Amino acid sequence: MARILVIEDDAATAQEIVTELGAHGHETVHADNGDTGLDEATREPFDLITLDRMLPGIDGLALVERLRERRIHLPVLMISALSDVDERIAGLRAGGDDYMTKPFASNEMAMRVEVLLRRQAQQPADEAILRVGGIEIDLIRRKVKVDGEPIRLLHMELRLLEFLARHAGDIVSRKIIFEKVWGYYFDPGANLINVHIARLRKKLDRPGKPSAIVTVKGEGYRLDAV
Amino acid sequence: MLADRLRVRDIRNTSTFRLTFLFGVVFLLGVTILLGLIYGLSARELTRRSDRILRLEAAMLEQTSADTLPNRIRGEIARSAGGLNYFELRSIDGDHVAGDIRVGDLPPNDTPVERVAGDGKPMRLLAVETPSQETLLIGRDISPVVDLRRQVLMILIASGLITVIAVLFCGFLLSLAPLRRVRDLQRAIETISGGDLEARMPLAGRGDELDLFAGTVNQMIDEIERAIGQVKGVTDAIAHDLRTPLTRVRSQLYRLSQSSEVQAPAVRMIDAATSDLDTVLERFGALLRISELEAGRRRAGFEPVDLAALLARMQELYEPLAEDQGITLMLDVAERGTAPGDEKLLFEALSNLVDNALKFTPPGGRVTLALATDAHGPVIEVRDTGTGIAADERQAVIRRFHRGSNAAEVPGNGLGLSLVVAILHLHGFTLGFRDGLPGLVVEVRCHGHGSEEAVKFISLAGASPAAHLDGAGQEAVAV
């Protein structure tokens, strides 16, 4: 369970976020303007902030910059009605950790929150070897073993596996995978990511064992320890 | 499509040329009638004079007695200077008695006719019967009249030829300037009818009938542009306003599907409804994104994009999908090239083109991502060995929601190429199609110079960001 500060001036959107994060077992505090949000963020400890880009009072971009100035390095998920790539870049440059556009699917938002929380949790232990069940990824030598047996992965397959491994146990949507692994923000179509996953799965799967990459219907994929 | 060069046929068909030609023909007809009248009157007068002289001569000779008439005739012949007059006397039996006329058949009595004399000269010939019933033939050289006739004819032919040539030349010259202007107007109309509602008919500033016409058409386009802008605004507003409530409905459905109280059959129905909502939201999203891109002014933030690296990443991304479909995805980079742009947007545009190529290429086919350079800069080509796009459909496929005639079996929302157009427009790049023989070649010219088939993009055209065919040449285009 995490404590999350929801800074959002639109009551309906705020309710949406609070309900969804509550359903995922997180505790939320809502601030409906930038000034209150900044006060809350500096006064109380939070694990993550969801931040509207355009707010009455301090603007979302300015707010995240102030937070960083005050050495508050909470992960920030910026949410904005502005979808243009420039806006996304501006949001991330200002110090946002992820960016999503309104309107958003609430489960997608929750997924992003989980991804950010997981990343935050992993940051101090930025180990050289990632292990998920029988999968072992040597991040320095860029080598992968499954049940002790080396397998050969292509560059992007390794990056995909590394991303899934860093968020093992979390459901990640195809959109998030495309953004985080390939670095692009458009929707390339479900099929494209599916075939990349299928290829990776084929290399990881071992006879007699369930697949480590689980497809969650309608949502995305999850890497499980098997 | 307009040919670049004016052809004789084009000029021949202009109303200016036809009018000039008509005036020329009327003028020629007038000249012919005038010369004909002058000739006719002159010739008749000269002939009358000759006939009068012939009758006077005949009257004088008739008074001469039959015995002395042959000698008189010989005397007259001797006196006739330069052979101007001809004489002959024939007996009652028709035998030659005296004189220098040798004609076969005799003309009717007392009626002058035209004949050729023994020395080959033209003459008027009069036959009269003397009191002694002999036949007296008197001829008079009419070479001057015949010469006059010939000269008039020559003048007529020469002036006719000169007039015809002058008329053709003037008609050509007079037609050229208006025809060029009409061509400019035609080109403007082609651009406009191709969907570029920012284009206008050129005005010469002379206030002539073509300017009046062009001005009226421009007013009409202003109105159409305004109306389309309104329609587009309404469409975008609907998409924008519906997106938020629909997303909330989706979220509620999602939560419902996660609820333990809902039975499995209901979950399946909820999932189906969610999937449908996703399709609607995806279309709204794409529509608004296109509008956003069309309204964008991003060039200031552009940076040099390594196009070869971009294509390599593209191949890396799509190779598994291609392999899955039994298609070979190849890279053909002749030389490296860079173009100022937004790497992420260009990747998105190319991704759409590659996705299309893979959708329309059958298993066993090939899709090639090529980078080359033309005189103006880098050119990216996406070549496939698929079904291609019919030449007459190429303009339509870039319109929003347009799906090609061969796309019925292929999933898609008909917005992909509109998005490509919007992104390339933002970069000032051009898009063109040509036959791959087999398949299709989609060209992205990473500079402002389009090929013959290049598409000129427009920023509004609510329902249709459309194409414009630039210049003459190969076949028609679409995107």
Secondary-structure-based class of chain B equals alpha+beta
Measured as a percent range, the helix fraction of chain A is: 40-55%
Work out the helix count of chain A. Answer: 8
CATH fold-level name of the largest domain in chain B: Beta-Lactamase
N- to C-terminal distance of chain A? 24 Å
How many alpha or pi helices of chain B? 9
- Kindly report the CATH topology of the largest domain in chain A: Rossmann fold
Roughly how much helix do the residues of chain B carry, as a percent range? 40-55%
Oligomer: heterodimer
Count of distinct structural domains of chain A: 2
**Content of β-strand of chain B:** 15-25%
CATH arch. level architecture of the largest domain in chain A: 3-Layer(aba) Sandwich
CATH classification class of the largest domain in chain B? Alpha Beta
- Across the major sheet of chain A, the strand order is 2-1-3-4-5
Unreliable stretches of chain A (pLDDT < 50, length at least 5) are none
Largest sheet of chain B: 5 strands, antiparallel
Structural class of chain A: alpha/beta
Largest β sheet strand count, sense and barrel closure of chain A = 5 strands, parallel
The number of strands of chain A is: 11
